[in-house]
Amino acid sequence: MSKWYERGAFYHIYPLGLVGAPKENRESSVTDQFGQLCEWISHIRSLGCNAIYIGPLFESSTHGYDTRDYRMVDRRLGDKEGFQEFVSRCHKAGIKVVVDGVFNHTGRDFFAFQDILNHGASSPYRDWYRGINFSCCSPLGDSFGYEAWQGHFELPCLNLFNPAVKQYLFDTIKFWIHTFDIDGIRLDCANVLDFGFMKELRQNSAGVKEDFWLMGEVIHGEYGRWVNQDILHSVTNYELHKSIYSGHNDHNYFEIAHNVKRLESIGSQLYTFVDNHDENRIASKLNNLQHLYPVYTLLFTLPGIPSIYYGSEFGMEGKRTNTDDSMLRPMVSISEIKELSCPLEDFISKLGHIHEQNPEFHGGRYQELLLTNRQYAFARFHENQAIITAVNNDESDAFAQVPCPCEGNTAVNLLNDEVFPVIDHKIGLTIPANRGVILKIMEG
């Protein structure tokens, strides 16, 4: 039996944006937004998604990644009981819940940093942060210097070599598992986290909850350094993300196929996406919006664990600026947006259910079958069964003879139930312009 995350299809929510929370956390009381978030659960399930990545949730001062309290739900979203109810409802709907773990740095309001501000070199927390130096001042006027994430001194870097810091964070994960029954954590900035820390984290979390999933945010690097039996279960597949949109904009399926082949040994474990809270919406990246259809077809059928970013299933656009991410993280009312008729939403829902119902996509072997600049076909396998995906980024329909990699005499397009004969181990078919087909090979 495969693990839940191997069968996973994620829905990604940036909750502070979705509910329209204040940009700065100056609230003295809790604002309950989990009732609003619960309204999304049935929609998420209708898309065929069986997991949610929601975060950040830890109490923070502004955007969620400047943690103020690791063991409090951000009061702009709600309280402990509200999130417990949200997770419970997700689980009842068959949806796993993964949250953000921001362990590379804290905000300046975190208790340990505040203690250093107040007590200086006599603080028992002076070794909780990297590069603490009491012989100089920080750019923010503090009486000491310290390392900050990418030079942002609002985000002092934790010292993950300090056993007390590590134990505090391991206990924090136990707290979130025991208190909220979460199913996994996405590690923010995993590309700069210490590998020894992540290895210990894997060992600790595995002992607390079976099948607890650890996924890391990694943009560049050899993903196999992180994704293995000792470190993490998965990382963000930024390589595929880039190749998917540029491969369509440039009419170059070779770029996508090369990327898939390069990552073939770990590809089915990687967290795949076409946009997220840090990246421009896919509808704002593509030169041709009709390419949304082959893009999402590839997302759900190539090796990987697919993820949809909230609102993008409705074709939502959004671009970041050099100083502002807010256009990527808008307030959205599910009841209002559902009133809009959107063919893309229906199409993604069909893809989600195809992914969920067919084990070929749950880690199944990948085989390239046909490749040109504008047409691309591949198979995914489960035991002796195969499903073929063929996509076309051209403005015109394209006829193709696609090799059939397994026994069978018919191929059924799971998108519309159209049947094609298999003749001499080949399937002759027309791939519609800017669309694709998903063919299940059948006997009879």
UniProtKB/TrEMBL annotation:
Catalytic activity annotation: Endohydrolysis of (1->4)-alpha-D-glucosidic linkages in polysaccharides containing three or more (1->4)-alpha-linked D-glucose units
Gene3D superfamilies associated with the record: Glycosidases, Golgi alpha-mannosidase II
Keywords: Carbohydrate metabolism, Glycosidase, Hydrolase
Glycosyl hydrolase family 13 catalytic domain mapped to chain residues: 27-355
Entry annotated with the keyword Hydrolase: yes
Pfam families: Alpha-amylase (PF00128), Malt_amylase_C (PF16657)
Domain of life of the organism encoding this protein: Bacteria
Family stated for the protein in its record: Belongs to the glycosyl hydrolase 13 family.
Protein name stated in the entry: Alpha-amylase
